[in-house]
């Protein structure tokens, strides 16, 4: 076992990735690998076999195979003949398309939330926003991004429309990779927190127009950061035709 772990480390693979303990094992493996790809722990071009995944998580190959299928669907993994599975490079086109669809869904969601949201969800969003500020003070980018995701998820929960999250989850995978790369130089945390505060202000005022405008501004931020990041780290991006 120690020899296999050393071999994985030599190839640039993490020896072990911890499971979250929340939900079916296949879902936990998918989320663990998804996070590792988004944060660059598994960078573009990394070869990844079912055997590697099995050893990283200490599980059989079957749930790893299921997670790989979902990662291919999310555009994070690709199967290359004679080479196996590789972590995909970032597609600017997929980032732009995913952002477009996400904006359409979340703009509709936040309008409805502005009409329906109750005090409990407003309070939960306010607490989340304070936690974002604390993460920014600590320069904890991974924590901030987790809170950012939770902020958007809470708004969807507030209108009891969780299928909306399922709709955008895969589409935003490429966006999440760019968002992680954009912190903090291209997209300062303080700016993103202020954008969240504007969304919350629209919800508190029960003003659908203000909430929607704030959400659209926030989700379009990635368009400003995508070009500079692709120029700075071209090796991470596909050459879209």
Automatic annotation (TrEMBL):
One MF term in GO for this entry? DNA binding
Q: Which UniProt keywords apply?
A: DNA-binding, Transcription, Transcription regulation
The lineage's top-level taxon is Bacteria
Entry-linked InterPro entries: GntR_C, TF_FadR/GntR_C, Tscrpt_reg_HTH_GntR, WH-like_DNA-bd_sf, WH_DNA-bd_sf
**CDD domains associated with the record:** WHTH_GntR (cd07377)
Q: Where is the HTH gntR-type domain?
A: 23-90
Q: Does the keyword Oxidoreductase apply?
A: no
The name this protein carries in UniProt is: DNA-binding GntR family transcriptional regulator
- Tell me which species this is from: Inquilinus ginsengisoli
Q: What is the lineage of its organism?
A: Bacteria, Pseudomonadati, Pseudomonadota, Alphaproteobacteria, Rhodospirillales
């Amino acid at each position: 076992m120690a020899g296999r772990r050393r071999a994985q480390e030599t190839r640039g693979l993490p020896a072990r990735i911890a499971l979250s303990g929340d939900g079916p094992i296949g879902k936990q493996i998918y989320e663990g690998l998804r996070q590792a790809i988004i944060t660059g722990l598994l960078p573009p071009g990394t070869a990844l076999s079912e055997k590697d995944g099995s050893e990283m998580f200490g599980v059989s190959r079957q749930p790893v195979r299921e997670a790989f299928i979902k990662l291919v669907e999310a555009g994070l993994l690709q199967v290359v003949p004679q080479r196996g599975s590789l972590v995909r490079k970032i597609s600017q086109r997929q980032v732009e398309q995913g952002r477009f669809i996400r904006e359409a869904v979340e703009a509709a969601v936040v309008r409805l939330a502005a009409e329906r949201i109750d005090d409990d969800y407003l309070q939960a969003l306010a607490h989340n926003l304070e936690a974002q500020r604390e993460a920014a003070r600590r320069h904890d980018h991974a924590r901030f991004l987790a809170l950012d995701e939770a902020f958007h998820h809470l708004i969807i929960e507030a209108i009891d429309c969780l299928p909306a999250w399922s709709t955008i989850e895969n589409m935003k995978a490429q966006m999440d990779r760019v968002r992680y790369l954009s912190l903090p130089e291209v997209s300062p945390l303080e700016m993103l927190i202020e954008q969240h505060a504007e969304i919350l202000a629209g919800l508190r005022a029960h003003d659908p127009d203000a909430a929607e405008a704030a959400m659209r501004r926030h989700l379009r931020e990635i368009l400003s950061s995508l070009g500079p990041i692709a120029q700075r780290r071209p090796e991470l991006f596909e050459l879209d035709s």
